[in-house]
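Key idea: predict the complex, not the pieces.
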Amino acid sequence: MDVMPKWAEVILVPLISLLLAAIISALVILAIGEDPIAAVNLMITGALGSTYGWGYTLYYATNFMFTGLAVAIAFHARLFNIGGEGQAMLGGLGVALACLYIPWPHWTLALLGATAMAALFGAVWAAVPAWLQAKRGSHIVITTIMFNFIAAALLNYVLVNLLRPKGQMDPATARFPEATQLPTLHDLLAPFGIEFSKAAPANVSFLVAVLACVALWVLIWRTRLGYEIRAYGHSESAAKYAGISPVKITMIAMIISGALAGMMAINNVMGEAERLVLNSTEGAGFIGIAVALMGRSHPVGVFIAAILFGFLYQGGAELALWTSIPRELIVVIQALVILFTGALDNMVRMPLEKLFLAARRARAPKPERKPVEPAE
Amino acid sequence: MTGDTTLERQATAAPDVPAIELKGISKAFGPVQANKDISIRVMPGTIHGIIGENGAGKSTLMSILYGFYKADKGEIWINGSRTEIPDSQAAIAAGIGMVFQHFKLVENFTVLENIILGAEDGRLLKPSLAKARRTLLELAEDYGLNVDPDALVQDIGVGMQQRVEILKALYRQADILILDEPTGVLTPAEADQLFRILGRLRSEGKTIILITHKLREIMETTDTVSVMRRGEMTATVRTQDTSPQELAELMVGRKVLLRVDKTPADPGEVVLDIKGLKVIDDKGVERLRGIDLQVRAGEVLGIAGVAGNGQSELLEVLGGYEDGTGEVRLNGQLLDLTGRHSDGQSRRARGIAHVPEDRQREGLIMEYQAWENTAFGYHHDPEYRAGVLMNNAAIRSDTAEKMERFDVRPPNPKLAAKNFSGGNQQKIVLAREIERNPDLLLIGQPTRGVDIGAIEFIHQQIVALRDQGKAILLVSVELEEILALSDRIAVMFDGRVMGERMPDQTDEKELGLLMAGITDTNAPHSVEEIERNLAHAPGDASKEV
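Result:
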């Protein structure tokens, strides 16, 4: 029986978790002899205080939105896709090939083509573990982790031996042609008379990510495929009874997941670096897991969580730049947020549920309560 | 605990002091009041029945007595002295033994090893085993509980396993035995044997609490009976002063029909024709060993049998989610038993509806709301879709109508399936499957975990569908249900059909023998013979019942 009203479930629990993470982070900062309030101030002004800060926050958030959605859709089918990192790397390869070898006339077409290639490469990289799980029973957690390493090795080989221009020391591709360069938020907002930082990397991919959130919401909650994916995720035995093929759902969910993770590359490879470098993903595939956990695998939740993690990333970078707080501490803060919002969820939920129960009993005698509306 | 100290404990209570007295026990789980101010007195040397529908609070009450839960309020008095029972160790020390519905035995241990498990004296096993062997022999002599101490538990039948559970309790010096739905997995003959043992235990001064939802067992074995309804004890009466009708009314709170009203069947064409159907499971075990059955339009074919003898596989292969070999025809057309056209969707398209045995694991998605469950399996139907999207509005309004027709309470399409009671969950499944107007309805355990009020309704729906000229294949482990609903009965044992009988020409005794794999039903048979037979069957008592 649902004990808590919907708003408490969706807003209160993550908020309290965040608060707890913030308190412990503050204690850690205090312990190394820095001022936590000044640190928070610096993070906020650094990440949200200027359009430059916002530009970076949104850039990171775009990455996390794609990888977060990727993990979320797999979660709905009760599949744990840890391979977002590898799938995003392969997506980068797809983007690089699309941008380098096809003469695009305009960035809009280039964006479409690169998105398709990124999705295709990511999907293929996810389809192999999916097939192994569906047909051979190899656990998808293990295989996707292994595929991250294979992807890194593969990219290393391709960049060093195949795509690196002659005479270049750096294991990276050549710069993409001019026509494939995506407009930044500065370019997009200028016609509306809005000043946005020129130097920040946030670009049109952010809008693609938002579109992906909407599309995934429709897919999960409104289509028959989404209905089947959720049904399979809730109960495999019931899905079989209804004639929903576990093989089909496992494959489709993972292909969508891999495609979304791969699509991250239009942001970091095409939008920002404008060439493919080694380790272009910078761990965004793993942050996606935390984003999906915190966002409860709901596209709206993923959107909000991605912005929050974007803020943490950018704010953390500022902190490392302007204070003597070591960079590693930023990782600690991020880890605390993940720990509290993801892993220690029940620690907050249980006492809250008790509280709501007590409150409801105090309001008794009226045992019948309007049932909680579904998540949609 | 050590055996020596407890051995010295004697039943000190005078005969007029109750062996167990519960005073004002209350227990709430969240908003649900599972037990409300419950008081009972059970005199020593009697069998006390506790009867009530599922969810009435019987098991909660016994769990409090056995120390699994702590009561919010109330007192427990054992043999005239107030006793705190914080855990099951304390319950054992107070002389209470419990025989669970699902046995707690280690399958690959011997009977003897299972009996001393958790009650070993000292670190070395050998002296404990020797002592247990002596005690076991005494117990066998005193109560007629004969078991081979060196047999592996996995090799003995369900009835024997239950006897081991009783011996475990007696070995721990239990004077009070609680049995939770003990006959759920037994054939009628085994059940009779169990009740003889209970009678013997009573005559030796033991106190027995029997929890059941079967009225017949209460009437035949108990001295006094308490009825529970919605967490409250509605009545405690002497069994000889009451009747099944009265008890049923007390359980449900209104008059109920205990028999199904139906006219004789008027069977038409053969709808389902099964020839030589075999199923081999993942482990290579043959679960169905060549089944031949026919179901005609306008009749109910009941499949009786102890759980785990192939009935589930029969339903699964016909429902399209288990592969099989053989020949199955529906209205003369062959059904694919493997491959792409052998799944739930194709079966539904062919006119087979299926109410599965386990509605919580198969029939419903518990997290889905009622309307989502109403579309389950039929979500590709044209009236439920709008392009690639689901037509949620259409499904919701359809669900509201179905809920009204099937009297689902509360009639709220947006409530998650898990928040409905067992009976109402079953009505949701039934409404979904029956309202499709199928040619053949497969229905497994239609009233398992369903309260009496809903049982009546579900039985009426099945008979009504039959009267519309539909073929119905009914699988149930409840013989009473099979006898009440079927127009023809087939008995399954060890993956085979042992025989077919007409319900008015057979009785529970004959069916019971067939269920134990004995086809020569006229010759005399001992219970031992039946149990020997059952022990060799692949029947799986651990399967969720």
